[in-house]
Design brief:
By secondary structure, the protein is an alpha+beta fold. It has a single domain, classed as Aminopeptidase (3-Layer(aba) Sandwich), CATH 3.40.630.30. Helix content is 28%, strand content 32%. It contains 3 helices and 6 strands; from the N terminus they run H-E-E-E-H-E-H-E-E. The chain has a 6-stranded mixed beta sheet with strand order 1-2-3-4-6-5. Helix 2 packs across helix 3.
Length: 147
């Protein structure tokens, strides 16, 4: 939960209480134990097992048939290419293990770093999207014909 105590790390996330984050964490553990295809996963350093952050793959609740990716990294791991690699892995996983025709992602308009990550992962910037009265940058990748 320390990841959510860093104001810079959570700057671009929806505002949640510690209790809400704990509930999400508990639900994540249950989903993982059940072997669900969609969900949240921890990201760990292969060298020392240190917790790096979290990533997610979930149904995009605004538009049926699309899957949304997301990620959150501890600040000390920013700028190392980990988020770009994780976004590419999530896209590949999403197209491999679901029948979705499109992978999408959103960021706050001021989160330029995350927007670069999504572009590096092969997503395309589309017109902005409004979620819960907040305008967000919107990215998409259609399922390749070869899959």
């Amino acid at each position: 939960m320390a990841l959510y105590d860093d104001e810079e790390v959570i700057l671009h996330l929806p505002k949640r209480s510690r209790k809400e984050n704990l509930e999400i964490y508990r639900a994540t553990l249950a989903d993982y134990a059940a072997g669900k295809v969609l969900g949240r996963w921890g990201i760990f350093n292969n060298g020392d097992g240190e917790y790096i952050g979290t990533c997610l793959l979930r149904n995009f609740y605004q538009e049926e048939g699309k899957v949304e990716i997301g990620y959150l990294l501890a600040k000390k791991y920013w700028g190392k290419g980990i988020a770009s690699e994780m976004a590419q892995i999530l896209v590949g996983y999403g197209f491999t293990y679901t029948d979705t025709k499109e992978i999408v992602a959103v960021t706050t308009l001021s989160n330029i770093g995350s927007q670069k990550v999504l572009l590096n992962a092969g997503l395309t910037r589309l017109p902005n999207f409004v979620r819960d009265s907040e305008e967000l940058a919107y990215f998409s990748m259609k399922r390749p014909a070869s899959l």
